[in-house]
Amino acid sequence: MKIATITLNPALDLTTSLATLVPGEVNLVEQASLRAAGKGINVAMVLRDLGCDVTVTGWLGEGNQAPFVELFQRKGLEDAFVRVRGETRINVKIAEQAGRVTDLNLPGLSIDEPAREALLAALDRLCLDHDWFVLAGSLPKGVEPEFARDLIVRLKARGKQVIFDCSGAALRVGLEGAPTLVKPNREELGQWAGRPIETDAEQRECAEALLAKGVDQVVVSDGSRGLLWFSREGVLRAVPPRMQVVSTVGAGDSLVAGLVYGLAAGLPKEETVRLATAASALAVSQVAVGFAGRDQLAPLMERVVITQLMTQGDAQ
Protein backbone atom coordinates (compact mmCIF):
# COMPACT_ATOMS: atom_id res chain seq x y z
CA MET A 1 0.00 0.00 0.00
CA LYS A 2 1.20 3.53 -0.75
CA ILE A 3 0.35 6.31 1.67
CA ALA A 4 1.14 10.02 1.37
CA THR A 5 1.48 12.41 4.28
CA ILE A 6 1.03 16.16 3.89
CA THR A 7 2.98 18.47 6.21
CA LEU A 8 2.23 22.08 5.34
CA ASN A 9 4.38 23.60 8.09
CA PRO A 10 7.35 21.33 8.92
CA ALA A 11 10.02 22.32 11.41
CA LEU A 12 13.49 21.65 12.64
CA ASP A 13 12.99 20.69 16.28
CA LEU A 14 15.77 21.90 18.57
CA THR A 15 15.25 19.98 21.82
CA THR A 16 17.29 21.01 24.85
CA SER A 17 17.40 19.69 28.39
CA LEU A 18 18.59 21.33 31.60
CA ALA A 19 18.03 21.10 35.32
CA THR A 20 15.83 24.17 35.76
CA LEU A 21 15.05 27.06 33.42
CA VAL A 22 15.71 30.43 35.06
CA PRO A 23 14.08 33.22 33.00
CA GLY A 24 16.20 36.29 32.46
CA GLU A 25 19.46 34.45 33.24
CA VAL A 26 22.09 32.57 31.25
CA ASN A 27 21.06 28.89 31.30
CA LEU A 28 23.53 26.07 30.67
CA VAL A 29 22.02 23.39 28.43
CA GLU A 30 23.06 19.86 29.34
CA GLN A 31 21.94 18.11 26.14
CA ALA A 32 20.60 19.23 22.79
CA SER A 33 19.48 17.65 19.54
CA LEU A 34 18.28 19.04 16.21
CA ARG A 35 16.04 16.93 13.99
CA ALA A 36 13.75 17.33 11.04
CA ALA A 37 10.15 17.08 12.19
CA GLY A 38 6.53 17.96 11.58
CA LYS A 39 3.39 15.97 12.35
CA GLY A 40 3.02 14.49 8.88
CA ILE A 41 6.72 13.62 8.75
CA ASN A 42 6.49 11.87 12.12
CA VAL A 43 3.48 9.90 10.87
CA ALA A 44 5.44 8.92 7.77
CA MET A 45 8.39 7.67 9.82
CA VAL A 46 6.17 5.39 11.90
CA LEU A 47 4.33 4.13 8.81
CA ARG A 48 7.68 3.29 7.24
CA ASP A 49 8.64 1.33 10.37
CA LEU A 50 5.38 -0.59 9.93
CA GLY A 51 6.50 -1.56 6.43
CA CYS A 52 4.51 0.88 4.27
CA ASP A 53 5.66 2.68 1.14
CA VAL A 54 5.30 6.33 2.13
CA THR A 55 5.55 9.59 0.23
CA VAL A 56 6.00 12.88 2.07
CA THR A 57 4.88 16.21 0.68
CA GLY A 58 4.10 19.77 1.70
CA TRP A 59 6.25 22.90 1.58
CA LEU A 60 9.94 22.92 2.49
CA GLY A 61 12.34 25.87 2.65
CA GLU A 62 15.30 25.69 0.28
CA GLY A 63 17.65 27.39 2.72
CA ASN A 64 17.89 24.62 5.34
CA GLN A 65 16.48 21.53 3.65
CA ALA A 66 19.54 19.31 4.18
CA PRO A 67 18.39 17.68 7.47
CA PHE A 68 15.05 16.82 5.88
CA VAL A 69 16.65 15.35 2.76
CA GLU A 70 18.98 13.26 4.91
CA LEU A 71 16.05 11.97 6.97
CA PHE A 72 13.99 11.07 3.92
CA GLN A 73 16.89 9.18 2.37
CA ARG A 74 17.79 7.37 5.58
CA LYS A 75 14.21 6.30 6.30
CA GLY A 76 13.36 5.44 2.70
CA LEU A 77 10.63 8.06 2.36
CA GLU A 78 9.76 9.25 -1.15
CA ASP A 79 10.35 13.00 -1.25
CA ALA A 80 7.62 14.98 -3.02
CA PHE A 81 7.98 18.21 -1.01
CA VAL A 82 7.62 21.46 -2.92
CA ARG A 83 10.64 23.69 -2.32
CA VAL A 84 10.05 27.37 -1.67
CA ARG A 85 12.43 30.24 -1.05
CA GLY A 86 13.42 30.82 2.55
CA GLU A 87 14.08 28.59 5.53
CA THR A 88 11.85 26.10 7.29
CA ARG A 89 11.04 27.23 10.83
CA ILE A 90 12.88 26.09 13.96
CA ASN A 91 10.94 25.05 17.05
CA VAL A 92 12.79 25.11 20.38
CA LYS A 93 11.75 22.77 23.19
CA ILE A 94 13.28 23.39 26.61
CA ALA A 95 12.83 20.34 28.84
CA GLU A 96 13.51 20.57 32.59
CA GLN A 97 14.29 17.68 34.90
CA ALA A 98 11.00 18.13 36.77
CA GLY A 99 9.12 17.43 33.54
CA ARG A 100 8.08 20.92 32.51
CA VAL A 101 8.58 21.64 28.79
CA THR A 102 8.66 25.16 27.34
CA ASP A 103 8.04 25.49 23.59
CA LEU A 104 9.30 28.38 21.48
CA ASN A 105 7.81 28.07 17.99
CA LEU A 106 9.30 30.40 15.39
CA PRO A 107 7.32 31.71 12.40
CA GLY A 108 7.17 29.42 9.41
CA LEU A 109 7.57 29.98 5.69
CA SER A 110 5.45 32.56 3.92
CA ILE A 111 3.53 30.79 1.17
CA ASP A 112 2.53 32.56 -2.06
CA GLU A 113 0.15 31.58 -4.85
CA PRO A 114 2.78 29.85 -7.06
CA ALA A 115 3.74 27.66 -4.08
CA ARG A 116 0.08 26.75 -3.55
CA GLU A 117 -0.35 25.80 -7.19
CA ALA A 118 2.84 23.75 -7.15
CA LEU A 119 1.61 21.77 -4.15
CA LEU A 120 -1.80 21.14 -5.73
CA ALA A 121 -0.04 19.86 -8.86
CA ALA A 122 2.14 17.57 -6.73
CA LEU A 123 -0.94 16.18 -4.99
CA ASP A 124 -2.66 15.57 -8.32
CA ARG A 125 0.34 13.49 -9.39
CA LEU A 126 0.29 11.54 -6.14
CA CYS A 127 -3.39 10.75 -6.65
CA LEU A 128 -2.40 8.57 -9.59
CA ASP A 129 -0.97 5.85 -7.33
CA HIS A 130 -1.83 6.77 -3.71
CA ASP A 131 -5.22 6.05 -2.16
CA TRP A 132 -4.60 7.21 1.43
CA PHE A 133 -3.52 10.70 2.48
CA VAL A 134 -2.73 12.08 5.94
CA LEU A 135 -3.06 15.85 6.41
CA ALA A 136 -1.47 16.76 9.74
CA GLY A 137 -0.05 19.76 11.54
CA SER A 138 -0.30 23.54 11.53
CA LEU A 139 -0.51 26.03 8.68
CA PRO A 140 2.31 28.39 7.62
CA LYS A 141 1.98 32.12 7.09
CA GLY A 142 -0.16 33.11 4.15
CA VAL A 143 -2.30 29.95 4.28
CA GLU A 144 -5.83 30.35 5.57
CA PRO A 145 -7.77 27.52 7.28
CA GLU A 146 -9.98 27.18 4.21
CA PHE A 147 -6.98 25.73 2.36
CA ALA A 148 -7.08 22.65 4.60
CA ARG A 149 -10.78 22.19 3.86
CA ASP A 150 -10.22 22.62 0.13
CA LEU A 151 -7.41 20.04 0.14
CA ILE A 152 -9.66 17.48 1.79
CA VAL A 153 -12.49 18.18 -0.68
CA ARG A 154 -10.07 17.98 -3.62
CA LEU A 155 -8.67 14.63 -2.53
CA LYS A 156 -12.04 13.13 -1.70
CA ALA A 157 -13.39 14.22 -5.10
CA ARG A 158 -10.68 12.01 -6.59
CA GLY A 159 -11.86 9.05 -4.53
CA LYS A 160 -9.11 9.25 -1.91
CA GLN A 161 -9.28 8.55 1.82
CA VAL A 162 -8.11 11.44 4.02
CA ILE A 163 -6.97 11.23 7.66
CA PHE A 164 -7.04 14.68 9.29
CA ASP A 165 -5.08 15.76 12.37
CA CYS A 166 -4.93 19.53 12.88
CA SER A 167 -5.96 21.93 15.62
CA GLY A 168 -7.48 25.37 16.13
CA ALA A 169 -8.97 27.14 13.13
CA ALA A 170 -7.49 24.62 10.70
CA LEU A 171 -9.38 21.84 12.50
CA ARG A 172 -12.62 23.78 12.71
CA VAL A 173 -12.71 24.77 9.05
CA GLY A 174 -11.04 21.63 7.72
CA LEU A 175 -13.78 19.47 9.19
CA GLU A 176 -16.17 21.09 6.73
CA GLY A 177 -14.44 18.96 4.10
CA ALA A 178 -15.71 15.77 5.81
CA PRO A 179 -12.47 13.76 6.06
CA THR A 180 -12.50 9.98 6.34
CA LEU A 181 -11.20 10.10 9.91
CA VAL A 182 -10.33 12.93 12.26
CA LYS A 183 -8.19 12.47 15.36
CA PRO A 184 -8.44 15.37 17.80
CA ASN A 185 -7.36 15.08 21.39
CA ARG A 186 -9.91 16.07 24.01
CA GLU A 187 -8.60 19.67 24.20
CA GLU A 188 -8.70 20.08 20.41
CA LEU A 189 -12.23 18.70 20.33
CA GLY A 190 -13.12 21.39 22.85
CA GLN A 191 -11.63 24.00 20.51
CA TRP A 192 -13.98 22.80 17.79
CA ALA A 193 -16.99 22.66 20.11
CA GLY A 194 -16.28 26.04 21.70
CA ARG A 195 -16.46 24.64 25.22
CA PRO A 196 -14.44 22.32 27.48
CA ILE A 197 -15.08 18.63 26.82
CA GLU A 198 -14.77 16.68 30.05
CA THR A 199 -16.85 13.51 29.90
CA ASP A 200 -17.23 10.57 27.54
CA ALA A 201 -20.83 11.61 26.96
CA GLU A 202 -19.68 15.06 25.82
CA GLN A 203 -17.16 13.44 23.47
CA ARG A 204 -19.95 11.28 22.07
CA GLU A 205 -22.17 14.32 21.51
CA CYS A 206 -19.42 16.06 19.53
CA ALA A 207 -18.58 12.91 17.58
CA GLU A 208 -22.19 12.32 16.62
CA ALA A 209 -22.41 15.91 15.36
CA LEU A 210 -19.32 15.33 13.19
CA LEU A 211 -20.63 12.01 11.89
CA ALA A 212 -23.85 13.78 10.92
CA LYS A 213 -21.78 16.29 8.93
CA GLY A 214 -20.20 13.54 6.81
CA VAL A 215 -17.06 12.61 8.75
CA ASP A 216 -16.81 8.81 8.64
CA GLN A 217 -14.92 8.18 11.88
CA VAL A 218 -13.87 10.24 14.89
CA VAL A 219 -11.04 9.15 17.20
CA VAL A 220 -10.63 11.23 20.36
CA SER A 221 -7.36 10.66 22.22
CA ASP A 222 -6.93 11.47 25.89
CA GLY A 223 -3.39 10.62 26.98
CA SER A 224 -3.06 7.77 29.45
CA ARG A 225 -6.85 7.36 29.53
CA GLY A 226 -6.65 6.05 25.98
CA LEU A 227 -9.10 6.83 23.21
CA LEU A 228 -12.67 6.58 22.05
CA TRP A 229 -13.31 5.61 18.41
CA PHE A 230 -16.73 6.70 17.16
CA SER A 231 -18.28 5.46 13.93
CA ARG A 232 -21.74 4.67 12.65
CA GLU A 233 -21.21 1.05 13.72
CA GLY A 234 -20.64 1.93 17.37
CA VAL A 235 -17.94 3.03 19.79
CA LEU A 236 -14.65 1.42 20.81
CA ARG A 237 -12.67 2.35 23.89
CA ALA A 238 -8.96 1.50 24.01
CA VAL A 239 -6.89 1.90 27.17
CA PRO A 240 -3.08 1.66 26.78
CA PRO A 241 -0.78 -0.19 29.15
CA ARG A 242 0.84 1.87 31.89
CA MET A 243 4.18 3.20 30.65
CA GLN A 244 7.13 5.08 32.11
CA VAL A 245 6.75 8.41 30.32
CA VAL A 246 9.99 9.75 28.85
CA SER A 247 8.58 12.10 26.19
CA THR A 248 5.14 12.70 24.72
CA VAL A 249 6.60 14.04 21.46
CA GLY A 250 5.29 11.96 18.58
CA ALA A 251 2.73 10.00 20.62
CA GLY A 252 -0.27 11.41 18.78
CA ASP A 253 1.51 11.04 15.43
CA SER A 254 2.28 7.39 16.21
CA LEU A 255 -1.40 6.86 17.00
CA VAL A 256 -2.41 8.38 13.65
CA ALA A 257 0.12 6.20 11.84
CA GLY A 258 -1.29 3.08 13.46
CA LEU A 259 -4.82 4.07 12.53
CA VAL A 260 -4.08 4.75 8.88
CA TYR A 261 -1.98 1.59 8.63
CA GLY A 262 -4.81 -0.57 9.94
CA LEU A 263 -7.45 1.11 7.81
CA ALA A 264 -5.39 0.99 4.62
CA ALA A 265 -4.48 -2.66 5.24
CA GLY A 266 -8.11 -3.58 5.86
CA LEU A 267 -7.46 -4.86 9.38
CA PRO A 268 -10.41 -5.46 11.72
CA LYS A 269 -11.22 -2.32 13.68
CA GLU A 270 -10.25 -3.85 17.03
CA GLU A 271 -6.85 -4.92 15.68
CA THR A 272 -6.34 -1.48 14.18
CA VAL A 273 -7.10 0.36 17.42
CA ARG A 274 -4.97 -2.12 19.38
CA LEU A 275 -2.01 -1.55 17.06
CA ALA A 276 -2.42 2.23 17.06
CA THR A 277 -2.74 2.42 20.84
CA ALA A 278 0.35 0.26 21.29
CA ALA A 279 2.34 2.45 18.90
CA SER A 280 1.36 5.55 20.88
CA ALA A 281 2.21 3.88 24.19
CA LEU A 282 5.65 2.89 22.91
CA ALA A 283 6.24 6.45 21.73
CA VAL A 284 5.90 7.95 25.21
CA SER A 285 8.51 5.54 26.58
CA GLN A 286 11.31 6.89 24.36
CA VAL A 287 12.69 10.08 22.89
CA ALA A 288 12.96 8.93 19.27
CA VAL A 289 10.01 8.70 16.89
CA GLY A 290 9.41 5.22 15.51
CA PHE A 291 10.55 1.71 16.35
CA ALA A 292 12.42 -1.29 14.98
CA GLY A 293 9.34 -2.93 13.45
CA ARG A 294 5.84 -4.19 14.12
CA ASP A 295 7.19 -7.10 16.18
CA GLN A 296 8.29 -4.58 18.81
CA LEU A 297 4.64 -3.62 19.30
CA ALA A 298 3.35 -7.16 19.87
CA PRO A 299 3.86 -7.29 23.67
CA LEU A 300 2.19 -3.90 24.10
CA MET A 301 -0.71 -4.83 21.84
CA GLU A 302 -1.53 -7.73 24.15
CA ARG A 303 -1.81 -5.31 27.08
CA VAL A 304 -4.18 -2.85 25.38
CA VAL A 305 -7.69 -3.16 26.84
CA ILE A 306 -10.46 -2.88 24.22
CA THR A 307 -14.11 -2.36 25.13
CA GLN A 308 -17.01 -2.27 22.68
CA LEU A 309 -19.51 0.44 23.62
CA MET A 310 -22.80 0.30 21.79
CA THR A 311 -25.33 2.29 23.81
CA GLN A 312 -25.28 5.92 24.88
CA GLY A 313 -25.18 4.89 28.52
CA ASP A 314 -22.01 2.88 27.99
CA ALA A 315 -19.95 6.02 27.37
CA GLN A 316 -20.99 8.04 30.37
TrEMBL record:
Classification via SUPFAM superfamilies: Ribokinase-like (SSF53613)
Catalytic reaction list: beta-D-fructose 1-phosphate + ATP = beta-D-fructose 1,6-bisphosphate + ADP + H(+)
Highest taxon of the lineage: Bacteria
Function: Catalyzes the ATP-dependent phosphorylation of fructose-l-phosphate to fructose-l,6-bisphosphate.
Family under the similarity heading: Belongs to the carbohydrate kinase PfkB family.
Protein name as it appears in the record: Phosphofructokinase
A Pfam family assignment: PfkB
GO molecular function: 1-phosphofructokinase activity; ATP binding
GO cellular component terms listed in the entry, alphabetical order: cytosol
Keyword list, A-Z: ATP-binding, Kinase, Nucleotide-binding, Transferase
Biological processes per GO annotation: carbohydrate catabolic process; small molecule metabolic process
PANTHER family per record: 1-PHOSPHOFRUCTOKINASE, 1-PHOSPHOFRUCTOKINASE-RELATED
